Amino acid sequence: MTDEARQMAALTAVEAAIGAAAVDRTPQALARFAISGAAPLGIVLPADETQLAKALEAARTAGGVLQPVCNGAHGLEKAGLDKVIILDLQRMNAILEVNEALAYCLVEPGVTFRQLDAHIKEKGIKLWIDHGGNPDASVAASFVHRQPGYTPYSDHFLMQCGLEVMLADGKLVRTGMGAMPKSTCWQLFKFGYGPWVDGLFTQSDFAVPTKVGMWMMPQPPAHQTFMVTVPKEDQLADLLDVLGPLKLNMVVANGVAVGSALHEAALLGKKRGDYDGKGPMTASAVTAAGEALGLGHWNLYGALYGLPGNVPILWDMVKGAFSSISGARVIADGKGIDPRLWAWRMGAMTGVVAEPRARVPAWSGDQAVSANPVSPVDGEEALRLYELSRDICAKHEFDYLGETVAIWRSADHRQILPFATTQAESAARARECAAALIAAQAEAGFGQAIAEPGMRETVGKTFETKGLSTLHERVKKALDPTALFASA
Q1: For residues 257 and 236, what is the distance between their CA atoms, to the nearest angstrom?
Q2: FAD-binding PCMH-type domain spans which residues (predicted)?
Q3: Residues 89, 46 contacting (CB under 8 angstroms)
């Protein structure tokens, strides 16, 4: 029996186990997960843990391979592997608890930030939601994929507390304090007793998340959002050098974003065709494109939080620090900035769940792959990474579309490579560029924080020293011996 035939038999077995209503084979649904020529054979959508366990048993018995996603309802999570069965948890979308007094939520994997936002507004709950820019992304997936946001709670991995997963054999496991039957602190104390294992279930194919607890930020008494623009390409270093001590001492506590002029232009709906010339845009053209929108070559977004009497003191300190950069503009009122960009950027730092005017891949395509290196919050290192990445992008005929989010002591960089899904050559070129970026960045000492669908093996090869890959293989064999779960 071929692999495809085995997969089709497994899909049929799952359908028999949980019903035809929980399986989708329509071309429209499958197209949401197609990427670079890879497409699934079908989508399994369990409604609850009982159906999920039955689906796993049926697929495992038939020798199938499932690729879990937390919420593929909006096509946000791509498969990356060909001829697999997608296990989409979007129907498991109950908000199980939002505790305002202790500032946490407990959700199933299908719950989106938009859904959680609607819930807290309906209930009048005074908590902020931190999201990474897309309201329709899964709250659980932001933890599973370790994606950052923009408030002081931007480190979604750190803010997770309490996890339930279903193993390949259908067994449910609660981690941390949730492992104790009468626990009162499942969403309050992360570690419980004994080895802490929550991290094993992020960026892995070891199990399926069924419940995720997340800490939420109480609305602060006062806050001040701001933006800093600089006119020159090499002043990325100046921004990071000023920001570093402010982050280290928790003066600027949020996930501070630094967007390139073209990245911000793309958020406003601008496209590559709006600008003259062929080939990657020069530094002067990028600067000019930013200036036409009231932006700098680099644009930093930060916020201060605290008591009404303290925030003005911090603001004077921060304003003075960034004003020391030649040509910098420190903006607190949005004057001169497109109001749509200003509202979205400032809102993202204050718990507002909204989406930008446009998605960055529309700059020169309709989908994208990205490189996601990490650097210190240090000017020299960030500039070294940028120049290396810019040159590789240009070699592959891509503009540099980048955003950096500084969280604690590191900066997560997202370098976006758009492509057209209808053009095989376009997708192949984007993946070739991503692979080149990943290899060169690793050689320069910059590892990846996230692997795009289909790029996990490429990224994994850069982390294979000191036995880490062997350890991962041993855990996988112990938890999922038949390799029921696939990860792109």
Answers
A1: 12
A2: 36-211
A3: yes
Q: Are 400 and 233 in contact (CB under 8 A)?
A: no
Q: How far apart are CA 249 and CA 123, in angstroms?
A: 35
Mode of pairing for the β-strands spanning 85-88 and 42-44: parallel
Q: CA–CA distance from 203 to each of 206, 269, 276, 448, 487 (Å)?
A: 9, 31, 40, 12, 8
pLDDT tens-place string over residues 71-120: 877 666 666 678 889 999 999 999 999 999 999 999 999 999 999 999 99
Counting DSSP H helices and E strands in the chain, the numbers are: 15, 19
Between the CA of residue 263 and those of 67, 269, 281, 415, what are the distances in Å? 31, 10, 13, 9
Q: What is the pLDDT of residues 2-41, one digit of tens each?
A: 989 999 999 999 999 999 999 999 999 998 887 766 789 9
Neighbours of 308 (CB within 10 A): 10
What whole-number percentage of the chain has pLDDT above 70? 98
Give the Cα separation of 224 and 251 in Å (integer): 12
Do residues 106 and 211 make contact, with C-beta atoms less than 8 angstroms apart?
yes
CA distance 343 to 349: 10
Q: Report how far residue 150's alpha carbon sits from residue 443's, in angstroms, rounded to the nearest whole number.
A: 29
Contact 337, 294 (CB under 8 A): yes
* Architecture of the CATH domain 222-453: 3-Layer(aba) Sandwich (3.40)
* Helix H or strand E segment including 374: strand 374-376
Which fold, 3-88? 3.30.43
CA dihedral 436, 437, 442, 446 (to 10 degrees): 180
Would you state the structure tokens that stand for residue 195, as one six-digit string?
């080895």
Tens digits of residue pLDDT in 226-263:
999 999 999 999 999 999 999 999 999 999 999 999 99
Instruction: Supply the DSSP string of 400-419, one letter for each residue.
Output: -EEEEEE-SSEEEEEEEEEE
CA 307-310-311 angle, to 5 degrees, is 85
- Identify the H or E element spanning 334: none
0.85 exceeded by pTM: yes
Give the span between the Cα atoms of 209 and 108, in whole angstroms.
8
Domain ranges of the chain: 3-88, 95-218, 222-453
Interatomic CA distance for residues 421 and 447, integer angstroms? 28
Secondary-structure class of domain 95-218 per CATH:
alpha beta
Q: Which DSSP string corresponds to 256-324?
A: EEEEEHHHHHHHTT--GGGS-SSSSPPHHHHHHHHHHTT--SEEEEEEEEE-TTTHHHHHHHHHHHHHT
